[in-house]
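Render this sequence as a predicted structure.
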Amino acid sequence: MSIKVVIVDDHEMVRLGLSSFLNIQDDIEVVAEASDGNIGVEYAKEYNPDVILMDLVMNEMGGIEASQEILAENPDAKILILTSFLDDEKVFPALAAGAKGYILKTSQADEIADSIRKIYNGEDVLSDSVRQKIQERNNRAPELHDDLTAREMEVLRELSKGLSNQEIADDLFISLKTVKTHVSNILSKLEVDDRTQAVIYALQHNIAEH
């Protein structure tokens, strides 16, 4: 019985390459390919795959938000992040969202296939560089901004540019109401009273937009 996989990635050549390689494996079958997170959420419902191979940065809806929606609908879903990004604002929110694995696109094809098998069999899979990041975080005192989601970090960087809520909404292709919610969450998590203090915090912690 084959491991059913859905690939979610906005680059067509990545999807084609992954699909071609995985489908020649005796025990893996790619049942669907999605070009963004919204479609990935729908395909997760439609195909009920054993493993979802998820990119992070995509148009419309990113991998973290898609993972959250998929897992809210099906807490047993097994999501393996496959991305080029290794920054804290991607790694930790993805794992916090419930992804069972996080590997890089620089991985060998055989490593990706083996990671799918491990996720399917209930193992957590992390690249060595991700494990190192987790160890480094465990060895330092927590920061208030550690609790910000990836989208909230984006909004904070937009705030640091001096943009209004409407300008942020336009930049990030989200609604004004959503921006206001994110800003409120940011102020609460950073324990500050207003946008100016949030920007000062971002500057002090080197997370503001340069």
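Summary. DSSP finds ten helices and six strands in the chain. Strands lie at 3-8, 28-34, 51-54, 79-83, 101-104, 125-126.
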